[in-house]
Amino acid sequence: MERAADAWEHHTFKDTIVKAANLEIYYRALNFYLQEQPSLVTDLLQALTPRIDVNRVVRMFEKSDNIPLIKPFLLNVQSQNKRAVNDAINDLLIEEEDYKQLRDSVESFDNYEAVPLAQRLEKHDLVFFRQIAANIYRKNRRWDKSIALSKQDKLYKDAIETAAMSGKEEVVEELLRYFVDIGSKECYVGMLYACYDIISLPTVMEISWRHGLNDYTMPFMINYLSQQAATIVELKRDNEERKAREKEERKKEDDTGPILGQSRLMLTQGPMQTGGGPAAYGQTNGIMPQATGYAGFR
């Protein structure tokens, strides 16, 4: 590096530097390439990847404002899911307006500053980036913010999916009433099925009656009542089976009861008498009284 004009050759240098024990030489080499051979810096990084600190490399090139120069390297090491790498790549993709690759990046690698990125994207001129912002809010359980962005750009399918993922009845009901207010009957029906297990039947009936949506609500009602009837039939069957088991158990107890009762009587009635009459005075349980040496009272 000190006599690059006379002694430097890229392939020889690359093969030699990986054998160096001093890690600081790697970063000196990167600075050298950045100054002298910027087009070859990615190739050098590829050779040094197992030995260098990726975060330090990112900071180095951010400081010199040369992150675009090492984009291939960043994409190659993104599988490590390091925050510095993810943030650098996401910034690059926003500048390049590559929303497809940005969407893949934020969905595949979650170690990045989510909320600041979403706040930045929601102000973007392109709707695709605002859609990514809504998805980031959704992943971070900011349901209201995500749905608001989707409604703003009329991405109603995304809004319905977010409401269903939230699992919150109040979120679902608010969006359902929004679709009724704007007169979107298709989205109203879509909500009924996407959020079938969340939305309450009284709410649906009340909205349907007030806004004359019975024809659109009827398929939902038929399905709901059909499922309810099937549940009742199943409960009745389970109840009958339970009663049959209890009846069978009582029958078994009745069949075995007298034998057990007789055994209990035999155990508690005491020893049997062998003589025909009552025991003589002073003699109990067949045991003769013993002499004590004292005369009886007269």
TrEMBL record:
Intervals holding CHCR repeats: 45-188
Gene3D superfamilies: 1.25.40.730, Tetratricopeptide repeat domain
SUPFAM superfamilies cross-referenced by the UniProt entry: ARM repeat
One Gene Ontology cellular component: actin cortical patch
Transmembrane segments: none
Basic and acidic residues bias: start-end ranges: 239-255
InterPro entries recorded: ARM-type_fold (IPR016024), CHCR (IPR055358), Clathrin_H-chain/VPS_repeat (IPR000547), TPR-like_helical_dom_sf (IPR011990)
GO molecular function terms attached to this record: clathrin light chain binding
Residue ranges of the region described as Disordered: 239-264
PANTHER family, per database record: CLATHRIN HEAVY CHAIN, CLATHRIN HEAVY CHAIN RELATED
Protein name: Clathrin heavy chain
Lineage of origin: Eukaryota, Fungi, Dikarya, Ascomycota, Pezizomycotina
